[in-house]
Write a structure and sequence with these properties.
Elements: H1 2-38, H2 43-79, H3 94-99, H4 107-114
Helix pairs in contact: 1-2
Length: 115
């Protein structure tokens, strides 16, 4: 039981650290977007800025999705549901959770969900 509690605490620390890292990455990008929008250039600069903005937006969406999954995992830890497969209710292996702390399904159910 003590080992399980220590494992959950370590997973929560890993998730919280990753959340902080993502927040540190996303916050400056949002401020930079405001500055970029005010700059004026020729059509080539504008096309390049649009491409860069699309890439930034795509990356931000990926990071925001990861933040959402981190919050869900932290919530599962607090509710005592972390490490329990959402589909079958069986325990997710500790090895899988160490490798993929955001895992909400056991390997079998994840493979089924992915088709």
């Amino acid at each position: 039981m003590k080992e399980r509690r220590e494992f959950l605490e370590s997973m929560e620390q890993v998730l919280c650290q990753r959340r902080e890292n993502i927040m540190a990455l996303v916050a400056p990008e949002v401020r930079d977007d405001d500055d970029t929008a005010r700059q004026v250039g020729d059509s080539a600069d504008e096309a390049q800025n649009i491409s860069i903005e699309k890439l930034k937006n795509s990356l931000q969406m990926t990071e925001l999705d990861e933040l959402r999954f981190i919050e869900l995992a932290i919530d599962r830890i607090k509710k005592g549901e972390f490490g329990v497969c959402l589909d079958c209710g069986e325990q997710i292996s500790q090895k899988r959770l160490e490798f993929q702390p955001l895992a909400a399904r056991c390997i079998t159910c994840q493979e089924t969900a992915e088709g």
